[in-house]
Amino acid sequence: MTKIAVPLFDERISPRFDCAQSFLLLVVENGKIVDRKELATENWTSVERTGRLSALGVDILICGGIDEVAARRLIHNGIRVYAWVTGMARDAVVSLLNGDLEPGIMVGADGHSQGRWRLKGKGPHFGEDRGKKGMGRGRRRGRRQGPSAL
Amino acid sequence: MSGKPPDGRRDTILDSIADGVFTVDRDSNITFFNRAAEKIIGIVRDQALGQKCFDVFRANICQNACALRKTIETGRELIDLHINILNSAGRAVPVSVSTSVLRDENGDIVGGVETFRDLSTIETLRKEIRRQYRSGNIISKNHEVRGILDILPDVAASGSTVLIEGPSGSGKELFARAIHDLSGRKGNYVALNCGALPDTLLESELFGYAKGAFTEAKKDKPGRFKLAEGGTILLDEIGDISTALQLKLLRVLQEKEYEPLGAVATVKADVRVIAATNKILSELVDRGSFREDLFYRMGATTILLPLGKLLLNKMFSKSAEESDEEYGVEKTGEDGSIRRPSSAPPGRKTVNIRGY
C-alpha cells in the first residue's frame, strides 16, 4: 500500500506546496487506486502541512514549487518528494504509477512528459536526495496499468 | 509614424529594464517574458512562453488572489502590491508587482501585463537596519540611543554597577531591564522606586528584617536584595535617598554584604546594582546631599539617556514588534529634534565608562 499526496489548484498540481488550499490523498494497492479523498489545508502553515502529511503516513508527495526547508523536512520524515512538477494532478499520478514520473517535468495528457523544467539550483526538492525510507516505493509498480479512478 | 514600436524594438526595450515583465492572454498563458523575469524567477524565456503564469511565477497570491486575473476581470490596474514568489532554487523572493490590462485595436481586453521588482536587497537592508535599531524591547532611531544600544551588550556583560541618568519617561527602567536580560544573570530582576518610600520603610524593603526587629515583625521578611540574589536590582530615583541609607548602600557595593533590620548575622549579596535617577547626581554631590564615594562607586558605568520628544512613546511604551508595525522603523526623518535632558551639562558623553 502506498499513500500519495498532491497539493491541488482546482484539478491541477498547485504551483506552491505552502499555498495549496487542499491536498489530494490517494491510497494505491497493487497499482490501483483504492481510496481517494481531499484534505482541506486552507490557512495551514508549511510546518503544519509537512507534519500532517507525515502523520497520515504519506509515502510520496507530488508537488509543484516547494521551499527547500519543507522539502528537507518531508524527506527527513521518509516521504519521497517529486517537486517542480506541473500539469493536471490526475496525469501526474498516472505518470507515477507508470513509473515515468520524475521531479521537474511538465506532465501532459495520460501522464506523458511534455518536457522538463530547466531550473537553476539543486537540492532535495530537485529529487537529488530522496531519503532512504520510501526510496523506490511507487516506482515501477503497476507499470502501464494506470489509475482506476481519480 | 506609428506610436507603437515594432515587436523587436519593444522586446529590446523590455529586455533592457531591471524589472521583470511578462504578459498573458485571457487564459493565463504566458505570451511575453523579459530577461529580468528570467533572472528573478530562474526560468528561461523559451520554457516560460506558453506555460500557465502561475506555474512559472509561483506567487503566494496565484491561487487565491491573483492580481493579474483581477485586473483582467475588472480592467483596473494594481500598483505596487508586495508579495513573494518562489524562485527556482526554492527560496521565497519578496517582490513588488503591478498589473495592467492589454487591449487590442478595438479596445477589448486580450490579456494582461505584470511587472515585478525584486525587493530582496531592500528587504535585507531593512532587516539590517531594524537589527541595528533594536536591542531587546528597545527600538530607536535616535543616534544617541542607538549608540547606547550598540554598547549595551558590553555593559551588560561587564557585571559592573551602572548608573542611568535621564529625565522622567526616557526609559531608564527599560534600559535597566535590557541590561539584566542581556547579562545572562540567572537571578531575578527586581526594581524599587526609592523616592516613593520613607527612609525607614525603604531600608526594610531593601534589606528585609528579622523576626522581632520591631513590633509588627512577626517573622523574617526578605528584602529586595534577597529577592534579587543572583540577579539585578534597579534602584530608581537613587538621588532621593537619605545620606544614612547611602552609607548602607555603599557598604553593599563595596563589601557585597548587608544586615537585615534587627538581624545579627551579615548576609552576602550577589546582586548587580543598577541605579537610576532623573537628577544630575554630580550636582547633588557638589551640593553635599549625595555621597561622593557612593556616586563614584555606582557610576562605574554611567548611561545618560536623551529624551526623544517625538519618539518617546514609540520607543519605550510599546514592544519592538508593535512599534515596527505601527510606525515602521525604516521611516526616517521625524526625530531630528532629539534633545538632551534639560539639566544635562553641555558636551557630556552619552555613555561614560570609568571602568568595568
Description:
- The complex is a heterodimer of chains A (150) and B (356).
- With 150 residues, chain A is an alpha/beta fold.
- Helix content of chain A is 19%, strand content 27%.
- In chain A, strand 5 (60-62), helix 2 (68-76) and strand 6 form a beta-alpha-beta unit.
- The two termini of chain A are 17 Å apart.
- Chain B has 356 residues and is an alpha/beta fold.
- Chain B has helices spanning 7-15, 35-41, 45-48, 53-57, 67-74, 120-133, 143-158, 172-183, 199-207, 224-227, 243-255, 281-287, 292-298, 312-316, 320-327, and strands at 20-25, 30-33, 78-86, 92-103, 109-118, 134-135, 138-139, 162-165, 189-193, 208-209, 221-222, 232-236, 257-258, 267-268, 272-277, 301-304, 351-353.
- The A-B interface holds A 9, 12, 14-16, 18-21, 64-68, 71, 83-84, 86, 106, 115, 117-121, 123, 125 and B 42-44, 47, 51-52, 54-55, 57-58, 60, 62-64, 86-92.
What's the structural blueprint in terms of helices and strands?
The complex is a heterodimer of chains A (150) and B (356).
Chain A: E1 2-9, E2 12-13, E3 22-29, E4 32-40, H1 46-55, E5 60-62, H2 68-76, E6 80-82, H3 89-97, E7 105-107, E8 113-116
Parallel strand pairs in A: 1-5, 5-6
Antiparallel strand pairs in A: 1-2, 1-3, 3-4, 7-8
Chain B: H1 7-15, E1 20-25, E2 30-33, H2 35-41, H3 45-48, H4 53-57, H5 67-74, E3 78-86, E4 92-103, E5 109-118, H6 120-133, E6 134-135, E7 138-139, H7 143-158, E8 162-165, H8 172-183, E9 189-193, H9 199-207, E10 208-209, E11 221-222, H10 224-227, E12 232-236, H11 243-255, E13 257-258, E14 267-268, E15 272-277, H12 281-287, H13 292-298, E16 301-304, H14 312-316, H15 320-327, E17 351-353
Parallel strand pairs in B: 8-15, 8-16, 9-12, 12-15
Antiparallel strand pairs in B: 1-2, 1-5, 3-4, 4-5, 6-7, 10-11, 13-14, 16-17
Helix pairs in contact in B: 7-8, 11-13
